[in-house]
Give the backbone structure.
Amino acid sequence: MNLEQAKAQLIALQAKMSAYHHAMGLLSYDGATTAPKATAANRGQTLSVLSEESYKLSTGKDTVELLEYLDAHKDELNAREARMVEILIKDIRQMQKVPMEEYVAYQTLLVEADDVWHTAKETSNFALFEPYLEKIFATTKKFAGYFAPDKDPYDFWLGEFEDGLTRESCDQFFATLRSRIVPLLKKVSEKEQVSDKCLWGHFPIDKQDELSKYLMELMGLDLTHVGLSTTEHPFTTSLGSHLDTRITTHYMEDNFASSMFSVVHEGGHALYDTGSDDDLCYTVLDGGVSMGIHESQSRFYENLIGRSLPFIRLIFPKLQELFPQQLEGYTAEDVFRAVNKAEPSLIRVEADEVTYCLHVMVRYELEKRVMAGEITVHDLPAEWNKLYKEYLGLDVPDDKHGVLQDSHWSGGAIGYFPSYALGSAYGAQLIEKMKETVDVDACIEKGDFAPINAWNREHIWHYGCLLKPQVLLEKALGAKFDPLVYCTYLENKCKAVYGLE
Amino acid sequence: MNLEQAKAQLIALQAKMSAYHHAMGLLSYDGATTAPKATAANRGQTLSVLSEESYKLSTGKDTVELLEYLDAHKDELNAREARMVEILIKDIRQMQKVPMEEYVAYQTLLVEADDVWHTAKETSNFALFEPYLEKIFATTKKFAGYFAPDKDPYDFWLGEFEDGLTRESCDQFFATLRSRIVPLLKKVSEKEQVSDKCLWGHFPIDKQDELSKYLMELMGLDLTHVGLSTTEHPFTTSLGSHLDTRITTHYMEDNFASSMFSVVHEGGHALYDTGSDDDLCYTVLDGGVSMGIHESQSRFYENLIGRSLPFIRLIFPKLQELFPQQLEGYTAEDVFRAVNKAEPSLIRVEADEVTYCLHVMVRYELEKRVMAGEITVHDLPAEWNKLYKEYLGLDVPDDKHGVLQDSHWSGGAIGYFPSYALGSAYGAQLIEKMKETVDVDACIEKGDFAPINAWNREHIWHYGCLLKPQVLLEKALGAKFDPLVYCTYLENKCKAVYGLE
């Protein structure tokens, strides 16, 4: 094998891996969007075969020899090739540590767990989901032991979702947020509550669907490469490469804002994914680099843009056109206040910006305790309800509105939730930096997202996974990450909405 | 290797093949139903990798050795195992004759061709599709040369879709039909034409969708295993196994009968597929055995049941409930006559039963001539229009309503069309046989499809691919196939609708 051959094989290997990811991703997507109800076992059968093939491909002798050869010649690789080898070696060294049967069994478990979670949520029946969730936590812990035997298992998984993140840094981050959010929420509660009546009524699905398409186009998504479907829980996924990206939403007939912000949130993910340089397609460098950076983009469009007054003013005529009776007598300013109403609530994805991170902290605390063995999966509903009382002052009426609300655990994403809070905070600091060179508010008012997207593309999207998350972030910010910027942003938002001093 | 090991490997091999078919089938299904417009190249990339893997699996040394071993021990296999080996060996011996690059390139071509066909049809632009269709015909011819160098290429493909079918037997079959259909159509044209006004109007998609679900449940489909989507051209596909089967339809807002009969037609395919014994899942014996038998089931439910007076009487109250204004003043008998109006028309899938086979003959003639080199793909639009004038007396206004109307050619299904006519004729003879033991009309009137489905399950469905098509058919019929039964059926139908003597 010479270097040129090895480089060609490196590309071919990644194309093959992308194909398996495409197939497996599409199976999951189909399960969440279109597949008939009783087909999970059938999908599980196929996924177990494909994940076995994919495992063999990744850990096979040819692959390992190729990567070791390239690693030994890393000085002769360009930056992209070197990073590909680095990522692949890390993934493969991890995968090699998991016995194939366990890897395949886990993939199959996740398909079943997702299916059961849907039914459990629908019927608010945690007992149904409990044995699956127990296995997921147990496997997560076991795999962490394989991957990084010297590390605390939860630290390991936090670091997988956001490079360098640990319980310690996470605790510190959340403590900072809490120290500013709790008093802020108290001040807000002393003011007269704003009304969100304008968001409620009857909003036909076909009109909401029209709104989704309008928003997607407005924010600069290319609808010939980005599709929209409906699912129980909104998400974004790229299939094969960023050239085929799907977002999903969940329509509520009695409230248009819920889906509206899901679309803008998932649209942010899709902008990031589809913003990778096109020649990164079918390589491991394609798409977003970490969940924290990903959420910085989704929550950027959802909140920093989507919940701003200029944005609500921009889209208000469209809202009036789609919902003329429902919005009669209301102004853009009414909608702005309504979508920024800060108030403890039960459902994370519908939470306002101020209370949002408290929802995340509940999940983080519970994951931390289960992973440490301080509580069991069986305890989760009761512990969940206790923390909602403690952090948000609310009584949880049932598990559907409590511990069963999110799809993450059924998908095995233990350690993911802090990314939402981190991403929100990254985003707040990113927009400050962007404002040094882009008149963001003026762009939004004109409905011209090109300069905003161009900034994000230049500083974040186009790299794909070329730069490590923390390097990328600090390069874009031109500074260290500082969560206080986010706290100040939230305070300013409350000033505008509630007239706080 | 001992026999028990080999038998276990036989099952494992088929499970692996099923997984690849699931993935590749889902990619195509996604492309036809949900994928954003500009994603065909991305799917093609993945399909090319997966078809290469699948090719390697099928033709690899291990597989060939396994099957040769089992073939040498065929006396020790049970009937199912023996048939599995027979089918696999036939497929693999064929595949081995195609160079892998050509096999993969053809899979990729089909993805692109399907994409281009959609655009070409939409814009009635045959020139766009022509180069793809040329390559498809050329490859079809070339592959036939690889598979069966001694056979005429079109004979080869006819036989692939329906065991034993050749140009000679096909010519004879169509000549028989023509000798009875052409005079029948003449007699009908001398009678006063029936009105189909009741089928036309404004029929909202959501109501039609409700009708689809109602029909699917009525005919006995299990909606937890059979899904419904919309596509340009209706079809049925099973993904991974018959446990996950999808049908599609195409809604026309100004006519409810078009989608209604698509759903019942595709529903018939789905009943057949999902009727395989469950322990055939993930083997090559799962699902329907040939396209002719498949169409015998789809056209059975569409026409012999769906266009019968008892059926229309059964569903009429539901139609009135869904479309009260549109159907005001009409009776079930009006709808019965309307859906049986015999009249030359342009679109095959919307054709009445009497003219239907003439549409099929046009396609058969054209395929035959292109495959024989008598005409080129470039000639197809003009030749198509000429034959529509000759067989149906119609002027074709544009290629959208002409040569571009069907999806089969873009999918590489050259030699498929005769199955529709054969299946229609098989069905007519099957229902006669069924009526010896089942009071079919009484069952339909009561809306009790269980005895009808039970007969089909016992005589056709449950076998999957265990019996060869002609064996299966003659066993079910208890007689040789006789196309004259179908001709008589058509004549009787016209008597009922037009009062012919």
